[in-house]
């Protein structure tokens, strides 16, 4: 199998074209736009905007090559039967998961605020995973979808770095996927947490995976269509 070397930390990531899915975590209005779940928790959502352009660049690169793309959405069923009481009881006591905000019910599947932002909206043929947890594998068909396509590597983008992105990286790592986190294509409401997460991922010889700048990933990709 041919590989494409990407300059990464803690050492070169050997991308296997066609076996590497782009996984975009929770680039939803609920986290990125005012009036959603993220803002309900007191966060400055404008901090996540920086990840949109780099994520779009990755998405366009994957689409141009016809490689697998996964989008995830943190979401709950309208009756909240998949939302553990412990999850709902924390956060903002006057605006909880399932309560009505300006974009509809917070973190509820199908609500306007729960959709992926228009710039990064999925297109036909891309995998969309609704996930009730922070990790993309818990209580979802993601593992089966990846296995069906022969995917063994995940190139990961999305928000927030230390919550859903990191949880997904750890879940994927335990399942045997090689994961590469693209540094500019992820963001946090807490820049220090983003930086710390990247260091945690690559520490100890890549105990969770690899990290690389966007430019290194794009420069290494073989010519697209
Ligand atoms: C959070 C996420 N932060 N997508 N979700 O609750 O990171």
Provide a brief overview of the structure:
The chain is α/β, with parallel strands linked by helices. The protein is 31% helix and 21% strand.
Give the CATH superfamily. Answer: Isochorismatase-like
Measured on Cα atoms, how large is the radius of gyration?
17 Å
Structural class: alpha/beta
CATH architecture: 3-Layer(aba) Sandwich
CATH topology: Rossmann fold
- Overall shape: it is globular
Helix percent band: 25-40%
Beta-strand content estimate:
15-25%
User: Which consecutive residue ranges, at least 5 long each, have pLDDT under 50?
Assistant: none
Q: What is the overall pLDDT average?
A: 97
Count helical runs: 8
The domain count comes to 1
What is the N-to-C order of secondary-structure elements (H for helix, E for strand)?
EEEHHHEHEEEHEHEHEH
Unique bound compounds: dicarbonimidic diamide
Strand order, largest beta sheet? 7-4-3-8-9-10
What characterizes the major β-sheet? 6 strands, parallel
- Please report the total strand number as a whole number: 10
Q: How many angstroms does the end-to-end distance come to?
A: 20 Å
